[in-house]
Amino acid sequence: MASQALSSLPTELLLALTEFLDSEHYIRLSQTCSLFRYLLFTSPRRWAFGANQDVLVPHSGLDVTLTQDHGADASDLLYDSVITILEERNGTVRYNRVYRGLRSRGDRSVVGGMPLCVLPIGWKQRTNPSMAYYEIKVTSTHDGTWRIGLARDGYSSVHPVGSLPYSVGYCSEDGSVALGHRDGERFQFAPPWKSGDIVGCGYLVDQDETLATVFFTLNGSWVGDAPYVITSTPYDYREIWFPVLTSSVGCQVQINLGQEAFAYKLANSILGDTHLVTKRLWSEPRCLDSTLATSDLVMAPNPLPHPSDPYISADLPSPYTLHFPDNGSTTARSCFSTKPIPPHFYYELVVLDPGPNFNSFLSFGLATKPYSSFHHIGWDAHSIGYHTDDGRVYYGAFAKGTKYDTELELAGVHRGTVLGCGYDARVGSVYFTRDGRFLGTAAEGIWGDLYVAVAAIRAWKVEINFGKRGFVYCPKEKDVGLRQSSPLVPLQRTPRI
Question: Do residue 208 and residue 314 come from a single domain?
Answer without folding.
Answer: no
